[in-house]
Amino acid sequence: KLYNFGVQEQTRKPDGQIEYEVTRTGTADPIVTLTEDVAKIPDASGSQVTLEKFLHLDRFAPGQYTLRLKITDKNRNQVLTRSEQFTVT
Which of 11, 26, 58, 77 shows the smallest number of beta carbons within 10 Å? Predict the structure, then answer.
């Protein structure tokens, strides 16, 4: 869940984007990349945005991977980056 996005005055929708990237730990080449407009996420509001994505792990070889999220609030000119490692066995 993401909270406190700035909203567009006309639409009252959040104005931002989320970039998803999955890389194999220790490499720089992304395996998965996706960019999403926050205003197009169902039920998104300035106070709360709920993210839900499915990642099909059957296309990943066993090993460690890193998921990176880059969240941009265009209205407030703020960027937040988070990452988390996961293991496919």
Answer: 58
- The tens digit of pLDDT for each residue in 23-81 reads 998 898 999 999 999 999 999 998 999 999 999 998 899 999 999 999 999 999 999 99
Cα separation, 6 vs 31, in Å, equals 31
Q: Which two tokens stand for residue 59?
A: 């296309």
Looking up tokens 């926050």 gives: 38
Rounded to 5 degrees, what angle do the CA atoms 13, 14, 16 make? Answer: 140
Residue 4 region by backbone torsions, left for phi larger than 0, else alpha for psi between -120 and 50, else beta = left
pTM metric for this prediction: 0.86
Cβ atoms of residues 31 and 68 within 8 Å: no
